[in-house]
Structure formats: C-alpha cells, structure tokens
C-alpha cells in the first residue's frame, strides 16, 4: 500500500516495534494527527506483538503498515534483518520526508539504517542517553549510539543528554531539548480513582499496605544478579508484615524460572502476568515505591511521586539520580535489602525522594517535537 501525499503535506513516518517505543511515540503520533501540514504515516515492525498491540489500542492508533516480524525465540540478527528488509520496501514505496524512531531497540537501529540507505532524514526521539558501557544495557546502548551516527535531528529529553551528544561531536544545531514523551503518555492514562479489572489487584489494600512494584528483565541481570534482587525482595517481605510486592513477570522463561525458584509462592509476593500500560501505570501510582531494572520506570515513577531503586550497575538516566528521585543500588543482595529497608523505615528519606523534582519534563514533549519538525522541514 502506498500513502499518497495529499495537498503538498510533508510526509513523516514513525517506526516502532515494542511496547516502550509505542508508549513514547503515541503522543507524537496523536499530535501529528492534529497537524494539517503533516501526512502522518505509522509503521510498526511488531518486534513485540501482544504488548505492542495493547498500547496501540489504548491510544487508538491504527498502523498504516505492520511488518509483523515477531516470532518466539527470535535472535537479534533475525529481528534486525527482517525489520531492515520490511522497512526498505515501505520507505521506497512511500518516500517520507522524515522517519522518526524512538529509543534504543533493534527496531530503532534497523529503522534508522533503512532510512539512511534511502537518503531519508532521520529524527531520533529520546536521543543522547548513555550508560558508558556498550554491553549494559545490551544491545540497547549500542543501538542508540549507532542510531545517533545516522540521525539528522536529535530530540534529547534533558540537558545531560544534549551534553552527551556534544561530547561525541554532534553539532549543537541538530540537538533539541524536548523533555521525554513518556510523561505525556503517563498523564494521559493515570486516573485518581482507578479500578483494576483484576481480582487480585483490586483486593490489595493500597491505603494501609506498603506495596512495592517490582520489574526485572534485563539480559545482563539474568542469572546470579537477578537471584540476588529477588532474594533481597523476599527478605524484605519476611521482615515487614505490612509489605506486599507486585511483580508483573516478564515473558522471558529464564526470568520466570528464577522468580518461581526464589519466591516459591510467597503469599505476599504476587507474580502477575504482564499488565497493559493503563493498569500498569495506575498500579505504579498506587504503589509505595518502585524497584526496577527498567529504563522507562526511572522516568515515569518520579512524575507520580514514587521513589525508584534501580537494580543495575549503571544507568543511562543519571538525571533522576542527581535530582534525588531515583537511586542506583546495583545487584548486591545486602545493598538492595538495606536501601529498601531504609525507605520503609525512615519517613524523612522516603519523603525526600518522593518530593524531588522530576527532571524528565512537563508532559508537552510531543508538541515541542512536532513544532521543531515543522520549523526544520517546512
């Protein structure tokens, strides 16, 4: 299918393939839908399938093109080659003026490379994040750096991201500080009196219990680091009668094996299936604190006043650490236990983290990005 250029509009194609990408691209897609000067084209690779579709439904986005590349157990090479081949056809047929990618997935790198091969300009949303370790997170750190080389417009969420790009030699006039679109998306779905469509979650007394929301799935944590994280969490629950844990457990069977082994059906540790974006963000809003190795949660939780303990050895999101909304605690069992215990027992330290100013934006990043696109491509 070819999308015709109606009325001399500029063609902007957004490409994404996973749930986190869809969440952060959705506000931009919706903003471009309102802009008469833009022919808005959406192409998904479906690097993830089920979790991607959930977000598309929430934001009422119907892709113009769906490559549907997902298959269980696919390798990074398979994802890259299938995405690259599929995107090449779509780009050649539709000839966009700009291709937008977001973040650091294999779809992002493949999308940027496919656009580069066709000499199409590239906009990188959430540009300039760096952990400093090419293998952590893996392969995301490499993907974002490789994408940066090909990018024409770097949409950096923070000043720190801009500084990272300048240090790597990118010209200042191609870097734009916008805030992070995840905050835009978050404000769209969180509700004050949200009711879960889930018997277990609705049964939890969020008012009188200290609920810890945990996520863990990073490849580099699988094995002993993840076992340390889970063991520390179990010890915390056993030491505090008023604590419950909700763990939307990742689909990766290796993660599940470790979780089932360590938690062993503990009555106050709830292993639930991955949640849709809307119930997940509202669960976060109701929780007491967040323990995670995710990148996005380091940005989202502070907007809801929730302290974040990052169970990784390094992070590409140091702004939250500097601001005091998040704390990097690593994967040592004793260290994790100590840090969680402190936030549960010392109210002053908890309030200091929960009241810190979120450095990731005001919820208007998508509008800023669309305005920049119009100015630069008009």
TrEMBL record:
GO molecular function terms attached to this record: UDP-N-acetylglucosamine 2-epimerase activity
Family named by the database record: Belongs to the UDP-N-acetylglucosamine 2-epimerase family.
Keyword NAD: no
Matches recorded under NCBIfam families: wecB
Classification via PANTHER family: UDP-N-ACETYLGLUCOSAMINE 2-EPIMERASE
Protein source organism: Sporanaerobacter acetigenes DSM 13106
EC top class named in words: isomerase
Lineage: superkingdom: Bacteria
Name of the featured protein: UDP-N-acetylglucosamine 2-epimerase (non-hydrolyzing)
UniProt entry keywords in alphabetical sequence: Isomerase
Coiled-coil stretches: none
Annotated CDD domains: GTB_UDP-GlcNAc_2-Epimerase
EC number(s) given by UniProt: 5.1.3.14
Residue span(s) of domain UDP-N-acetylglucosamine 2-epimerase: 30-373
